[in-house]
Specification:
Layout: E1 2-12, H1 15-44, H2 52-65, H3 67-71, H4 74-96, E2 114-117, E3 124-127, E4 134-138, E5 142-147, E6 155-164, E7 167-177, H5 178-181, E8 188-194, E9 198-204, E10 209-213, H6 216-243, H7 259-293, E11 294-301, H8 304-308, E12 314-315, E13 323-324, H9 328-341, H10 343-356, E14 360-365, H11 366-369, E15 390-392, E16 398-400, H12 401-415, H13 427-431
Parallel strand pairs: 8-11, 11-14
Antiparallel strand pairs: 1-5, 1-7, 2-6, 3-4, 4-5, 6-7, 8-9, 9-10, 12-13, 15-16
Helix pairs in contact: 1-4, 2-4, 6-7, 7-10
The protein binds zinc ion.
């Protein structure tokens, strides 16, 4: 049995390598936009959709007469075409199902991520002891110093070169034998609820609670981003003033980007990148620690996509064409916090690590178990609004909302059938557990 695992290395290009990386990124961005344009043209002319094989054929032809493209790795161009194909597949799928999807957009160079390689040895090669710091040779670009390591060794398969917030990374997917990934299995059992104020509230099988707070640096970094954003806004206002006295920008007219603004934008991008990297690192350490301690872990499967999508526009029935306030501003703030907490990243890491330790990671169906509403003591549903922080049940149970949710999830995981009418049980997971497991304290 083999599993796929990614290691992301930070790249340290020298000046000429950086030039080449930027040039390649620009070319891949232009290829992407050219392919999108041809897609649109065909779609608008009612022609047959632009298939992946047709794109690859065109790419081969373009390479014949565009010198710049000839330097690029042929497979990496196919990977770029594949990405465009996937975004159009999703577009047509949504169109078919009756949605009104937005057309795949042209990509701005500043936001364009990078490119990929699909076969090891074709255009890229690692020069390093496996999983250690070293170098990567990218044909046509150079031999670039990289840093980063994983806790396993494996066979490199595919790679992605990415630029985010001014930092270049190489993300390599390895095929790894399952044995090479095995982790020490914990012995305790617990379930947790995740939140925005408190990252995790862990209810342990011995009856105690353990909160895990968001790290302090996160708060200070977010404050720093906010402060920087204010400077940017002030500078943008100045740029606009210089443009035309108190006149709003006309449609299609763009702010002149001063040298100072350019510098500020780069600072904002760098800070966002730093927060993302630090959080990623923090989550890795936290999830490794949890898996080391707990053989059984449970939480609820959250439909994050539903929680963070934009609220629907509300039409004003009295005034056709006008809109009523729909709480978009309030929701935007909440969205940001949800994204900051990045629960899906946390749960994904836990799932992978629990598999490596062969321990149980159980996800409750939120709609059936309703951990926030359900009383952990008696199982009754107690309706709560988003800002009700306390659980108060007719059975006399009174505790913090997050504590109740975590304890409800724990009971679901350990007892399953205890919950009348939930129709979902955690005990299915328990059946897979080998019988020599020590009994869990109630
Ligand atoms: Zn109760």
């Amino acid at each position: 049995m083999t599993l796929q695992r990614k290691i992301t290395y930070r790249m340290y290009p020298n000046a000429s390598e950086l030039d080449a990386l930027e040039r390649w990124r620009g070319l891949h961005c232009r290829v992407t936009n050219t392919l999108i344009e041809e897609h649109r043209r065909r779609h608008e002319a009612g022609e047959k959709a632009y298939s992946f094989s047709a794109m690859c054929k065109d790419l081969t032809a373009w390479r014949g007469y565009v010198d710049a493209l000839r330097d690029l790795n042929a497979q990496s161009l196919q990977v770029t075409a594949k990405r465009v194909a996937l975004s159009f597949d999703a577009f047509f799928r949504r169109l078919k199902s009756g949605d009104a999807p937005g057309y795949p957009r042209f990509k701005a160079l500043q936001r364009f991520g990078g490119w990929g390689y699909k076969t090891y040895g074709d255009g890229w090669k690692l020069l390093q002891p496996e999983g250690q710091h070293g170098k990567v040779r990218l044909s046509g670009i150079g031999t670039i110093r990289i840093r980063g390591k994983g806790r396993f060794s494996g066979t490199p398969k595919t790679a992605e070169v990415m630029c985010k917030g001014g930092t270049w990374t190489l993300s390599v997917t390895y095929e790894v034998a399952q044995e090479a990934l095995s982790r020490q299995r914990g012995s305790e059992a617990a379930a947790f609820d995740w939140g925005l104020d408190k990252l995790l509230t862990i209810a342990k099988a011995d009856g105690t609670l353990e909160p895990v707070d968001n790290p302090r640096w996160l708060k200070s970094k977010l404050d720093a981003i906010k402060a920087l954003q204010r400077t940017v806004s002030a500078e943008e206002a100045k740029a606009q003033l210089g443009l035309a006295a108190d006149a709003p920008l006309k449609k299609g007219q763009r702010l002149p980007v001063t040298a100072k603004l350019k510098r500020l934008y780069a600072q904002v991008r760098a800070l966002h990148g730093k927060v993302a990297r630090q959080r990623h690192d923090f989550y890795h350490k936290l999830t490794a620690e949890l898996v080391k301690r707990f053989a059984f872990l449970g939480t609820e499967a959250l439909a994050v996509n539903n929680m963070s999508c934009a609220p629907k526009a509300k039409h004003d029935p009295d005034q056709p064409g006008a809109f009523l306030p729909n709480g978009a501003a309030a929701k935007a703030g909440l969205n940001r916090s949800i994204l900051d907490a990045a629960p899906s990243m946390l749960l994904g890491m836990l799932r992978a690590k629990a598999a490596e330790a062969a321990s149980v990671f159980a996800l409750a169906d939120t709609r059936k178990v309703k951990p926030t509403q359900r009383c952990h003591r008696c199982g009754a549903l107690v309706k709560k609004e988003l800002n009700d922080r306390v659980h108060r049940c007719a059975c006399g149970c009174e505790c913090d909302r997050d504590e109740n949710a975590a304890k409800t999830l724990l009971r679901w995981m350990l007892e399953g059938d205890f919950w009348p009418g939930t129709g979902q049980t955690g005990s299915a997971f328990m059946a897979e557990w080998p019988s020599e497991t020590p009994p869990i304290a109630g």
